[in-house]
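User: Can you recover a sequence for this backbone? Please restate the input before giving your answer.

Assistant: Of course. Working from this structure:
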């Protein structure tokens, strides 16, 4: 086995080990994610008839919930104690302005893109291309928010771009593996492009997509294993919260291992420290 492959596998095994430890400490995050999901659904019902004002209200609620979730993930990764219900309450308000700032910067260009593509015969294809690019280049934005010191949303974009260029193989390989059943399905490419466009639109900071992404992945794997859709739907609902939290924790630990460390440097550092 080549040294590069060995080092990469060791990197993922280390991230998985730490993810398990963080999940045991931060299982309350799963409870929070379920509660946050119901809160966002309630906010959506209130905001729907309010037009543009409702859109701003929903954006603020989304930023509040995403920021709180990132705070709980951060605590699960960095703290040695188990999280409590009090930690859920105190997490509300964390990273709110970071999420709002990134969403605001993306909002105007994406709105202009939507309007332009409506009259373009290749609009859907071009939109998919733009959102796929955003999905790739801004993928580590959530981890940058709570792990890297930054003074503005533009610095988050810059750090994300530089991180992806340096670590795109190690960062995206686990995601590519878990997407295999979706990509291999009869409508796999369309499903992937649709999924990436939804996630890319919000730079991974849309709370609904925090749940929709693992739900979609679970559905793909259950379908791949031949489980009937009538059963897989309920299994998806049951296992989506723990999978969503596990994915966020794994991303957090993997990002911490990759950020600021080159491939050459990782060769001289034990991944199990």
């Amino acid at each position: 086995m080549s040294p590069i492959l060995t080092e990469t596998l060791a990197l993922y095994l280390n991230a998985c080990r730490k993810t398990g430890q963080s999940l045991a400490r931060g299982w309350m995050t799963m409870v929070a994610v379920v509660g946050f999901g119901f809160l966002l659904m309630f906010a959506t019902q209130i905001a729907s008839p309010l037009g543009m004002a409702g859109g701003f209200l929903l954006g603020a609620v989304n930023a509040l919930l995403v920021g709180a979730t990132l705070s709980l993930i951060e605590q699960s990764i960095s703290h040695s104690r188990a999280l409590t219900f009090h930690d859920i309450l105190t997490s509300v308000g964390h990273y709110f302005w970071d999420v709002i700032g990134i969403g605001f910067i993306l909002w105007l260009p994406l709105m202009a893109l939507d309007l332009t593509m409506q009259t373009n015969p290749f609009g859907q294809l071009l939109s998919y291309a733009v959102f796929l690019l955003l999905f790739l280049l801004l993928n580590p934005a959530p981890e940058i928010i709570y792990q890297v010191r930054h003074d503005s949303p533009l610095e988050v974009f810059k750090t994300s771009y530089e991180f992806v260029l340096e670590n795109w193989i190690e960062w995206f390989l686990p995601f590519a593996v878990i997407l295999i059943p979706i990509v291999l399905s009869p409508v796999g490419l369309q499903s992937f492009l649709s999924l990436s466009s939804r996630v890319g639109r919000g730079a991974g900071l849309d709370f609904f997509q925090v749940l929709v992404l693992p739900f979609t992945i679970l559905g793909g794997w259950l379908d791949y294993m031949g489980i009937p859709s009538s059963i897989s739907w309920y299994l998806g609902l049951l296992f989506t919260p723990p999978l969503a939290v596990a994915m966020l924790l794994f991303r957090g630990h993997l990002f911490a291992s990759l950020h600021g460390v080159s491939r050459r440097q990782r060769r001289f550092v034990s991944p199990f420290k």
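That completes the design. The chain has one domain: 3-266.
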